[in-house]
Fold:
Amino acid sequence: MQFLRCAHAEFLLVFPRLTRTGLGISLTALGTTLVWLSAHALDPLTATLQAGALGAILGAAEIVGRGSDRAALTTALTHPTTALAVATGRWLAIVLPPAALTIVCAAAMGWHASAVAAGFAAAAAVGGCALALVMLLGNGAALALFLFMAVAGTVAPERLVDLAHPGALRLTTASAIELGPALWHYRDIATGDVGAVLHAFAWTGLGILLASAFIARRRARVSADRR
Amino acid sequence: MTDFALTLSDIRARGLGPVSIALVPGEIAGLVGPAGAGKTRLLRLAAGVRRPNTGDVRVWGMSIADPAARLLVGYASDGAAFPHALTVQEVLLYYARLHCARSNGNGRSPRSVAREALEIAGLAAARELRVEALGRADLHRLNLAQAALGGRRVLLLDELLSGLDAFARRISAAGSLGSRLRVSRC
Structure:
């Protein structure tokens, strides 16, 4: 119960940020762009997945990625909370705005419940991955992940792997694409693929656990630096 | 339970110790030494932010590793950071929620705990200001407010007055704060 209350306290930090940082405007711009694209070129399922995934990356950048936000974690951990509660609450704060965006986009593009479920899964999985990356590397990692998801995340893995030279590089590329969160994985959730659902769950859990480990390690490192 | 508010027993860490300290409730102690002597390191060990190689830190008989001990020990580190997008009140409300989550409320709302911390630090007039708009003196006060929040019984203040002019020092000085600090638990 205490864990949930601490996670809830972290989650509540999202509301001031929606209006005071670029998060609200960025999500609105993303949603508008995706709805426009779906009317011209993009299929609605891809647009819904992009809304979840790209929205989650924007959330991670605005809620966790700023230098002051990451530095403030050290102060937060001198209060009665845990690194896992902080990571879980921040993940919720990252994921809920893009989940709402997914619903709005799906409603604007012609409602498909299965596409919305896939969008939620994409937001959860990519949000977990983004949280861990941003916690470790800052907003540079968020930009790289955003570009990957926007461009390469929707492309079938075979086409990307063929670009790499045969050998270790191709094997590494194929492994990374297969294991990492990518929208082509989560398309299959719309058709009821259990494996894709499990993949999304795994990235959600792994992202939160990695982020909590980075938060705990960051506290120790900052302590050592200021010694 | 014990009569001592804070005890450090035979603490050893890299380049530090052995150190043993025992403070009784109400006691004000200063830590003085040249730069690099390990003052900040010792405060971090006492606050439970770092772990000593050997030795034991206890707050009213509880190990500092016990989460309940963090309800009792407030730590204002030198150069503490706060989220820039939030207002002073939102920052304190966030910490107050963590305290009330741990102590199951005990009849006090996070809002009243945050309000009390604002008063303790003399920040009531600045509560709607964003952290990024605060001057150095108000940042120090916010740091003090988060450390004292929830009626914590042991305050560890690291260079809280550094960089402040004489006027700001007088307002923030630990002596005048003593009268404002009240023992009221979350």
In short: Chain B touches chain A at residues 38, 40-41, 44, 47-50, 67-68, 70-71, 74-75, 77-87, 90, 94-95, 97-104, 130-132, 146-147, 149 (CB under 8 Å). The longest strand of chain B covers residues 6-13. The two ends of chain B are 20 Å apart (CA to CA). DSSP finds six helices and six strands in chain B.
